[in-house]
Amino acid sequence: MNQKPLLRIFMTTDAVGGIWQYTLDLTMCLREQGIQVILAVLGPEPSLKQSIAAGAAGAQMLLTGLPLDWTAETQGEMEEAGRRIAELAESSEADIVHLNSPALAGAAKFTIPVVAVCHSCVATWWRSVRTGPLPEDFVWRTEFVRRGYSTASLLLAPSKAFAQETKETYGLDRLPRVVRNGRRHADVAGYPDTRPSAFTAGRLWDEGKNFAVLDRAAACLSIPVLAAGPTEGPDGTSIKALHAQMLGILSDSEVAYHLSARPIFVSAARYEPFGLAVLEAAQAGCPLVLSDIPTFRELWGEVAIFVPADDSDAFARAIEMLASDGEKRCHLGRMAKEHARIYSADAMCSGVMAAYYGLWTPGQLPSHEDAAA
């Protein structure tokens, strides 16, 4: 007889960026604790590799065909997505709805307690990347997020810096609870770092990642700059590289293979609520050269080299300095790897579980000790 799960979680996700990695790592950890997860996928369908990874994580996956909050073309589409997700959550008989897209809670009413995670939003992105008033389509998207934040049972954020930015942007009465992201360390055999290189990964098309700065820096370097990730976004945004060597979209294992060589990992991001790619690089023992933004200072302040986000010459100097100093590279890589231990998938899972169980008064849900008895 199958044992009834301690909790059933209905969780939204998308296969476009870091939220996919976040949900799979969290799903796997929750499953190990006897918690069942139903993943409702919005936006483009996962690739075959992504679907296989979801199966390995033990997730029951629903492909909704619904738009993401930042790709919905009209308010009506957003409202329909919210209603449909609320219906699916209700029919799943879940105990908790975990929204990785809080705007959905602003588009429909949920009858189940909602944990909403402040991963990112167009309003905070705009504050970091652009100037001037929000464009019209950002205004109504921001209003959905605002309503979602106000109606959710609990808000989580992946860093103190982003929790504070979210509070200020939306005028929240209190800070979201901070549960830092984590990653399972990929077990990939390393190979000798005989020729130093620089490496970056992420949604390269996203202006917030600031890849153009690294591409300009690459023109001044004696070592190659390798870049992994999509260059075209689902909203039609695209970018071309002139100097960096583009690797395309890589699987998690392929990224881990590149990181196992311990290249100099570089991020020039102007907007980064957490930065899973940086964590993956640190777990692999890569030295870090990062943009000097509050999130990176908070998470990696003692173990990284920081550079002004838009200064391509400064990035080139920092990378060239490490390229010529193998001892320094190794030292910074060891420091980053040791520091990365605090951002484990298990630590993330513990924080999220505490949030789940905190939504009920004691005694209404079984504890793990009770289940093991």
Short description:
The chain is α/β, with parallel strands linked by helices and 373 residues long.
Number of strands: 13
Strand content: 15-25%
Task: State the shape.
Answer: globular
| Name of the CATH first level of the largest domain | Alpha Beta
Q: Report the CATH architecture of the largest domain.
A: 3-Layer(aba) Sandwich
Estimate percent helicity.
Answer: 40-55%
* First-residue to last-residue Cα separation: 17 Å
Uncertain segments are 365-373
Give average pLDDT, whole number.
92
Q: Decide which structural class fits the backbone.
A: alpha/beta
**Order of the strands making up the biggest sheet:** 3-2-1-4-5-6-7
Give the helix tally: 15
Sheet having the most strands: 7 strands, parallel
How would you describe this protein?
- The chain folds into two domains: 7-183 and 344-372, Rossmann fold (3-Layer(aba) Sandwich), CATH 3.40.50; 198-340, 3-Layer(aba) Sandwich (Rossmann fold).
- Helix content is 42%, strand content 15%.
- It contains 15 helices and 13 strands.
- It has helices spanning 18-32, 48-56, 75-91, 103-107, 122-129, 136-151, 160-170, 211-218, 252-259, 276-283, 294-300, 312-323, 326-340, 345-357, 368-372; strands at residues 7-14, 35-42, 60-63, 96-99, 114-117, 154-157, 177-178, 198-201, 225-228, 245-248, 264-267, 288-291, 305-307.
- The strands form two sheets. Strands 3-2-1-4-5-6-7 form a seven-stranded parallel beta sheet, sandwiched between helices. Strands 10-9-8-11-12-13 form a six-stranded parallel beta sheet, with helices on both faces.
- Strand 8, helix 8 (211-218) and strand 9 form a beta-alpha-beta unit.
- Helix 10 packs across helix 13 (326-340).
- The protein starts with 6 loop residues before the first strand and ends with a helix.
